[in-house]
Design goal:
By secondary structure, this protein is of the alpha/beta class. Helices cover about 45% and strands about 20% of the residues. It contains twelve helices and eight strands. Helix 1 links the parallel strand 1 and strand 2.
């Protein structure tokens, strides 16, 4: 049995990544031997606006240095829209830059961004056409849709809940998604992204929605956890939707 240190670069107002990601890892601990501890470094951000997101992203390198001091085994950048609002394909740039900070600090560390993890997760699920729910204002949601489509997927429909305050995003009841998703056009959709935001809670609703609609349902947080497991070289097997969440490894 080995204990892994999970590092997270987190917006200062984010309170969800430090609950949902550990929850999935803890579920894994009930059936597999590895154990995990969780360590965060924070970037200032209160309102989900393009200006605040850009300013916040500039702080991510310092956070990578701090987590590298703790010798974490994997590091996750826990803000999808911050990455996607910086331009198409920016997750690749961010992951290289953050990794270089850990190299310069003498402890090279695998990097995951929630933006890149969602893209990779959709590929693992074999998605071609997707539907997306976000808490963002419509202009930011449109940037997210464009980013996903630039990566080779068709976003058939999207919902923007238009909540600018990041703490209000975290306060949303995840079970509301059981009604919210019904506003989407799911015809010919391969995968539903129940939360394209790592701050908007969705974990308790994902399995339930998946059972109702009969197609894979995932989230940015679930994909981030899955990608972290892959970077650690531990068994994540086939599931990044309901399979992962229900412990069917």
């Amino acid at each position: 049995m080995r204990t892994y240190r999970i590092g997270q670069i987190v917006p200062s107002s984010n309170v969800t990544m430090e609950t949902e990601i550990p929850a999935v890892f803890r579920a894994r601990e009930t059936i597999l031997p590895e154990r995990f501890t969780f360590h965060s470094s924070r970037m200032r951000m209160k309102k989900v606006t393009k200006e605040e997101l850009e300013a916040m992203d500039a702080m991510s390198l310092k956070c990578a240095q701090e987590l590298s001091d703790a010798h974490v085994d994997v590091m996750g950048y826990a803000c999808l829209v911050a990455i996607m609002s910086m331009g198409r394909g920016y997750h690749c740039v961010s992951e290289v830059n953050l990794h270089q900070e850990t190299v310069a600090n003498g402890f090279p560390t695998p990097i995951v961004t929630s933006a890149g993890a969602l893209i990779n997760g959709l590929k693992v699920l074999g998605a071609k056409k997707v539907a997306v729910i976000t808490p963002y204002m419509r202009p930011l949601t449109d940037l997210v849709v464009d980013y996903i489509e630039h990566q080779g997927f068709e976003v058939v429909d999207s919902i923007a809940l238009e909540i600018p305050d990041n703490l209000e995003v975290a306060a949303q009841d995840p079970m509301n998604l059981l009604e919210i998703y019904k506003r989407l056009d799911l015809k010919n959709v391969d995968v539903l992204v129940a939360s394209a935001c790592v701050q908007m809670p969705s974990l308790p609703a994902i399995d339930l929605i998946q059972k109702e609609i009969g197609i894979p349902v995932t989230s940015a947080a679930v994909c981030t956890t899955y990608e972290m497991m892959k970077k650690l070289g531990i068994d994540a097997k086939s599931g990044i939707g309901g399979e992962l969440l229900s412990g069917k490894y």
